[in-house]
Design a protein that fits this description.
The protein has about 130 residues and is of the alpha/beta class. It is built from 3 helices and 8 strands. The model has no long low-confidence stretch (mean pLDDT about 90).
Length: about 130
């Protein structure tokens, strides 16, 4: 099916996301479902998507944020504050410490067949 997951020591199955949506950076592999759930802790976040951020030839993981209604950061200082709060979440977990770039969207592109599946490829950033 293209889905990835693993069994933990207690025999529980953990879903990690689609193989095609994982991000590989050097020896690190970032799985969307595992990473995105952590950022959903923020009270102003409606949806999250793990995306690729490409700065020249360097690929890094980044996070796309769909804020809840009324929380979209319209000004630079609001984006900076929101990003700082998201960075503090990222810094709590070894797997997300490297994520420092956040992009804010008013809506997420979705798969035409499944209106709820995020089209992460369409959101990846090249800067």
């Amino acid at each position: 099916t293209g889905d990835l997951g693993f069994f933990d020591q207690r025999g529980r199955l953990w879903f990690c996301g689609r193989k095609s949506e994982r991000i590989e950076v050097g020896d690190e592999i970032y799985y969307p479902e595992c990473i995105e759930a952590l950022f959903m802790q923020h009270a102003a976040v409606e949806r999250v998507a793990l995306i690729k951020y490409r700065n020249s030839t360097i690929i890094r993981p980044a996070i796309a944020i769909l804020p809840k209604r009324g929380f979209f950061p319209k000004f630079f200082w609001q984006r900076r504050k929101f990003s700082t709060e998201l960075c503090s979440i990222a810094d709590k977990y070894p797997k997300t410490k490297a994520i420092k770039k956040f992009f804010f969207y008013r809506s997420f592109p979705v798969d035409v067949r499944h209106n709820s599946k995020i089209n992460r490829g369409a959101m990846s950033k090249i800067i």
